[in-house]
């Protein structure tokens, strides 16, 4: 049986950031990754994907951005290369292709059963990421019809069957894929639910400049009126392109993308859409207006401009046939759930999610990192995971110190 004081499960940006922090304070540890370093960036995203945060915002602990394009947007392959370089630079003890099958609490810590044998550890950190298990609603109702894939399985327009595409979900992934397919000449229908519209740039700066300057991204959970509601907020309708262009419902309409309401059901070879498109658009417009006005007040100047609102189609689609050949592919940009079946039930809440307060669970020695709103608004962002990693490393240090004193 292999041993380590701390086992970090997952070698994405969160796990690697914590590895750096633990290494700096001399805590012996290992990082177990079921695939390769940054596996989800490699295998669960489309080929043209670029990070939606600017380069200056993507630094990890000990490695500030030092390139010549701080306002640019790195592509996923280049980002994976930076993760690999990070591992090499700090000699992170990563073991790839080791899947953790179970982690069981014992009197001395934890025993982990893995695909490469057993490990023991005094502490375990779950850094498996917020985007774990793709969610596809109505999966059983669409069997035998068009090709059904999750957004994480989409690679490029040329790898889909010819014909029309329905995309369900209008957050970050949905609008980016819709944009790419429309530009490739595909007929695209986009099912729109709750979404967050923001401009790529405002007052001559990237929108994240203002969100960071205002302290919005670093807002802790206890500063939020409704943390659980905040956790359920959809991702931003943003894309990282060299031309810094917006990608949202308005730009998609200009490309010929048809907008529809939420999918409310599938039966008899038809998808039924809710008549809520106008309501969803209005809610997003109002939220955007409030935030941009807040930025303007923060900047201490008069309002810098007004974004054109998204036009609500006068004739809105209510149903769409899945049998007449007009739709050959459905892409579900409907988010993810987490899979914690390898953890003991005591670590989980009633909803099956890992229960924690700021990354500290009720199970002694078990911690979480890299999940959405773990400690603050940017906890699952590349540039936000570093401060969380430092905090969790300090928690682990205190825990191991207490455990050592008890053993003595």
UniProtKB/TrEMBL annotation:
Keywords: Oxidoreductase. GO terms for molecular function: oxidoreductase activity. InterPro entries: Auxin_biosynth/cation_transpt, FAD/NAD-bd_sf. Gene3D superfamilies: FAD/NAD(P)-binding domain. Its EC number is 1.14.13.-. Pfam families: Pyr_redox_3. It is an enzyme of class 1 (oxidoreductase). It comes from the Bacteria. PANTHER family: FLAVIN-BINDING MONOOXYGENASE-LIKE PROTEIN (AFU_ORTHOLOGUE AFUA_4G09220), FLAVIN-CONTAINING MONOOXYGENASE. This is NAD(P)/FAD-dependent oxidoreductase. It comes from Mesorhizobium album. The lineage of its organism: Bacteria, Pseudomonadati, Pseudomonadota, Alphaproteobacteria, Hyphomicrobiales.
